[in-house]
């Protein structure tokens, strides 16, 4: 099935998920939408995030996608079930795959989660871990400074190492043996984090785990692309911010070319306006 | 005249301006509105920032304000003239006062400006300086990491000193003798910045300069409050984020108490909906 896999995020952090999809499913076609004009989602209300998620999905549906990946932690935490209920294709977010991998990886059932302030305060990782393994202890740590550090590209810097050390100290004191990277920006600094916390703690890249889940479900559903030619990857964004290519390339791991800007307001008008979540799930 | 001075900002950074107003105009009544539910403004379109500015001003008008201070760099850069045209009270933003003070302070006419990425890329400080003194050279430096550093309260930290040093190095190479703090968060770390760049460079706190302009204009217009009792200060916000009191207290310089949450959607509905900018200024 040549139809592409659709991926959306509130911005370009989701490109770390695309990087893993390209690595793990090299023959699939992908189409990415980054809602750069309306980011961040994390500080928005649940109702508004659901509306945005439906609109992002509607944009991707134009490409006949066969699978939808919600590569955004905020949208994953509130909108995946609703999207699954309203679309006729399989949908996955990034939270459950990361959580399942962490539960599998931990020996002492002490799991740390790092993310933006919005993600950690939303408690989405904590709740999902407790749902799947009530005996696990979960320690969340908001790391807001790491996001601009990654976007600035201050990767090989003492500032970044000191910041990671300071943020992770309370988690280390709680004796975690597994750490979920609960922000799509953090795989960019995975190595630095691993160096700071030592090799005995397992890092879980939610994006990588999500790509593995997609591969599994595509196989089960028998909707994989039957070709040995590398898939095509298309990028759409609702705004092209400064340094977009530079930051995008850092996230994707290879040059990000040909990202197209979408006039999202016009797209919505052409469909008849905002797409509100159905009341029963709002 | 007992009527209060109104101040609005996209969030709580504007509290550093309130701090200066309290210091410089201790007998005036103040009413502050922080639009914490819709922040940041900097990444929004000019049209939307104008709409928000009109709505924030309309909220403050309910208190019979005699003066409006736009304590938000993004709104100051696009909405001050429009607000002045549509309101019957004097209006000032934070940009022009900061710029006038910098032009007065510089000897070598080499002025640096630091702010958020949105503020620096908007070129508002650069344009205003060039308008008032075309012979000045202006060097802008976005400092996005300083905002979460201040919000986290990492003030006496090596990380903060290293970050300031790294951001300011290109400005120092350009031999600036005056530096405008073009973000309402930065007065919180003014001392650390001064220590890093050395005492020979003059720091301009836009908030302080704005408070001085307000005092001057209130005097000229003869609308000052005729009382020797300290004025009342009221705080309203459209959302109360976590750590609001802690961060607010850091910005204000003394305990922030009794901030009230406003249901801003309902306020707008009660007025008949969004307040769009008049076409001739949009």
Description:
Helix content of chain A is 46%, strand content 15%. The relative contact order of chain A is 0.19. In chain A, helix 2 crosses helix 3 (73-86) and helix 4 packs across helix 6 (124-132). The mean pLDDT of chain A is 93. Chain A contains twelve helices and ten strands. Chain A starts with a strand and ends in an 11-residue tail after the last helix. With 282 residues, chain A is an alpha/beta fold. In chain A, strands 4-3-1-2-9-10 form a six-stranded parallel β-sheet, sandwiched between helices. A four-stranded parallel β-sheet of chain A has the order 6-5-7-8, with helices on both faces. Chain A folds into two domains: 5-93 and 208-281, Rossmann fold; 95-207, Rossmann fold (3-Layer(aba) Sandwich), CATH 3.40.50.1860. The longest helix of chain A has 16 residues, at 46-61. Chain A has helices at residues 15-24, 46-61, 73-86, 95-105, 117-122, 124-132, 146-152, 158-173, 190-197, 206-220, 244-252, 264-271; strands spanning 5-9, 30-34, 67-70, 91-92, 110-115, 137-142, 178-181, 202-205, 233-237, 260-261.
